[in-house]
Amino acid sequence: MVYFMADRYYFGFRYSGITKSTLINGRGLRVVLWVTGCEHACFGCQNKELQDDKEGIPFMKDDFNHLLAYVNKPYIDGVTLSGGDPFYTKHREGMLDLLKMLNEQMQPKKDIWCYTGYKYEDLLTDPVAREMLNYVSVLVDGRFSIFQRTKDVSEHRTIPYRGDSKQRIIDVPASLYNNAVITLYD
Ligand code: SF4
To answer: Which of residues 162 and 8 earns the better pLDDT score?
Structure first.
């Protein structure tokens, strides 16, 4: 939840950095916000240093303004929230505020991808997480498994935009509308 801290407002979560443009964290050329805090402790996690919610620096309104300025560049296709876990239980209120503000202030509107270790079906049962999903275009869900990754690589499986083939790339608006999980890139 956004609240004031020394006259500036704070979203209630921390982040380790912003990648201004990348092709690997979702479709097209994207900006990525790397938040800290994750309770999944997946074996083989590539971002272990981002699991601790005390790592990184507080995400303030100034940081939001920087993020928005990068996202609004004409050559950028969208924004990706990753980490850590953007759906980390303690940070959901602040992430909901961020998602709403992005949705209102992106010019023009661009898609929002989100990576999480939770399952889509579990997020639907939590009111705040469910509301967050209203603003997410694509959700890459489920815990990462280094064993599945190794299997995928040895079987020459193509796994764009995700760590292993058991994670799902979910079209969130279509899934909410149809009340069923609709996946992309399968
Ligand atoms: S959900 Fe992602 S950040 Fe969290 S432990 Fe698993 S791989 Fe690491």
So the answer is: 162
pLDDT of residue 9: 84
Q: Which atom of ligand 1 is nearest to the CA of 116?
A: 1
Find the 37 Cα to ligand 1 centroid distance in Å.
Answer: 9
Task: Write the residue with the smallest CA distance to atom 1 of ligand 1.
Answer: 117
3-class DSSP string for the chain: CCEEECCEEEEEEEEEEEEEEECCCCCCCEEEEEECCCCCCCCCCCCHHHCCCCCCEEEEHHHHHHHHHHHCCCCCCEEEEECCCCCCHHHHHHHHHHHHHHHHHCCCCCEEEEECCCCHHHHCCCHHHHHHHCCCCEEEECCCCHHHHHHHHHCCCCCCCCCCCCCEEEEHHHHHHHCCCCECCC
Could you tell me if the CB of 143 is within 6 A of ligand 1?
Answer: yes
Instruction: Please answer whether residues 162 and 129 qualify as being in contact, where contact means their C-beta atoms are separated by less than 8 angstroms.
Output: no
pLDDT in tens, 102-118: 999 999 999 999 999 99
Mean pLDDT of 26-40: 98
